[in-house]
Amino acid sequence: MSAISKHLFTRNDLLETTICLSDIATLKNGYVFQSSKYNTLGKWRILTISNVSGERYINDKDCNCIINLPNDIQDHQVLKEGNILISLTGNVGRVSLCKDGDYLLNQRVGLLQLAKNVNQEFLYQILSSRRFENSMIACGQGAAQMNIGKEDVESYVLPYSSNVNNILLVAKILYSYDECIINEQRRLTLLTMQKQYLLTQMFI
């Protein structure tokens, strides 16, 4: 889909200007959880950089859990469905959306807190592009393990429009492609399972 998004993001008739990400969003950091508090029976699942894979939604496998929320945890560190998450260490610049559930924001995972009236889907599509990831990788060069920070993310310049209808149109088009991709991936998974079942039956 990168060719489609690249085409839309460079259309001056749709996105006639550019803005700095800091104009419409603020990067918030995660909580430093104590491993001694981890409990496999806990309902709260802690999202780390490994859960932000760059797919549309987080991969919530292999999460550490806790039973009770820390007393000093901040509101934004208790995640909500649709929150835009960014990996700040290692595979920097990967972006995924939080799913519905009891998830917590760990250190080195950034949460974008959007200004009022900012279209969440549009911003996600912009930041999930290869252009953003490459820009963050460039910012993180020069260390044994790549790291980016608040200034790196918030200084990113993105295409934008003062016409809300243009923003909605771009978001709608790219969201429809994401939906198709997800449905096809589910279909592929189902077909793979069916094939494995048939192969198993052949050798009984």
TrEMBL record:
Q: Which UniProt keywords apply?
A: DNA-binding, Restriction system
Entry keyword Nucleotide-binding: no
Q: Which CDD domains match?
A: RMtype1_S_LdeBORF1052P-TRD2-CR2
GO MF entry, a single one: DNA binding
Q: Name one Pfam family in it.
A: Methylase_S
Limits of the Type I restriction modification DNA specificity domain? 18-189
| Alphabetical GO biological process terms | DNA restriction-modification system
What the entry lists under SUPFAM superfamilies is as follows: DNA methylase specificity domain
Highest rank taxon of the organism? Bacteria
- Which family does the UniProt entry place this protein in? Belongs to the type-I restriction system S methylase family.
Would you tell me the protein name for this molecule?
Type I restriction enzyme, S subunit
The source organism is: Phocaeicola sartorii
What taxonomic classification does the UniProt entry list for its organism? Answer: Bacteria, Pseudomonadati, Bacteroidota, Bacteroidia, Bacteroidales
